Amino acid sequence: MPAAAAEKVTIVAFGDSLTQGYGLAEADGFVPQLQAWLAANGAPDVVLVNAGVSGDTTAGGLARIDWTLGEDVDGVIVALGGNDLLRGLFPEDSRANLDGILAAVTGRGLPVMLVGLPAPKNYGPEFEAAFAAMYPELAEKYGAVFYANFLAGISKGGLPDLALMQADATHPGAEGVARIVADMGPKVLELVARARQ
Q1: Active-site residue numbers?
Q2: Is the pLDDT of residue 1 over 50?
């Protein structure tokens, strides 16, 4: 057991600008801050790989998932869908793309964590219902560790605290990322535990 515990666990953070760290100094981004949080909370052996691409949609993610899954990958955090929302893409298309991504990950025998976003109200009730159902249903289908809202750690009443956001009101600032990481961290530890098995 001690030898196994010393082995590195490589987790790919697969997402868009929220994952990539848009608008922040590199050390303040989601992946570096999560790496530091994991090291301080019992998982210093975890290596996080930043596979966040600003502007990426679920379709873009599906197109690049296969070549992202190298031989050294032990688990994957999937956090996509925000740009689909911004573009008003059909939830059924986003769902199909996420389904394909999760199928690719689990098809390699890798544990996966799915990070969702809250359903918007501005596209109408049918869109909202379809989007709201997408993440939890896919998480259940693939047995994924599930974290319902990437921005939960900085949200009040379902909306992000603008004081913790950058000027664009879309991306969190450094302190916002720190709170997101602290809230999401325990779920990432669940993924790490599965990756060690």
Answers
A1: 17, 168, 171
A2: no
